[in-house]
Amino acid sequence: MLTLNKEAFNKLTQDKQDKILHTAIVEFAEHGFDGANINKIAEKAGVSVGAMYKYFENKHDLYLMAVSVSVEKLKSVLNQVTSAKIDFLSTVEKIIRAIQVYSRENIYLTKLYNVMTTESDSKVIWQIVSQMEGVTAKLYASFIKEAQTNEEARTDIDPRYFAFFLDNLFILLQFSYTCEYYKERLKMFIDEDIFDHDDLLVEQLMKFVKGALYLKS
Question: For the segment 122-160, what is each residue's pLDDT rounded down to a tens digit?
């Protein structure tokens, strides 16, 4: 995780650190970087504004720290899924199911990810992208290459492109479980009770992935 805080932040108890970061994540997720107010974050976290600037140089650093927390949680989830020695299709299915659970349990972290995509500050965007997307780009491409080697996937596809396409599916699925616009969009395309049928969504998405990659099973 990026070190963006000052030494004074490290001297706080873990509970206090967690409260400040959670409050920041909620504020940035609901209002974006420009709309978030560090004074409100301090008030809701139960610390003074002056103390906040002892913990972080500015709002930008606090924002990137909040993003970094999100990235580390995503890495942890992916590591749990990919550490098992299973085939490509089983890995994809486990990632889909992990997204369903992770997105519901970490609503504001997922909403923050959605908000990040709309930020106008190119410097902020680059720092975010280099963290977030770097986690998945090489990982998915390596899985597809391995599937090709094992003759589970067609060999006339470029793993880099399909890694990008696959990750887009996963990202949209995350948003569809947490962000109101995407939740309504999913219900419009499928059914009002779609969120009561996780297994059916997994089944249908897996058929889509298999069809795209011409996998054998």
Answer: 676 676 677 667 778 888 898 899 999 988 899 999 999
Contacts of 174 (CB under 8 A, 6+ apart): 99, 102, 103, 110, 113
pLDDT digits (tens, 9 = 90+) for 64-110: 888 888 878 887 888 888 787 788 899 999 999 999 999 999 999 88
**Domain coverage including residue 114:** 7-213
Residue 2 included in any domain: no
CATH code of residue 100: 1.10.357.10
How is 50-113 classified by DSSP, letter by letter?
A: HHHHHHBSSHHHHHHHHHHHHHHHHHHHHHHHHTS---HHHHHHHHHHHHHHHHHHTHHHHHHH
Count of structural domains within the chain: 1
CA distance 118 to 125: 9
Half-sphere exposure of 87 (CA within 13 A, CB side): 12
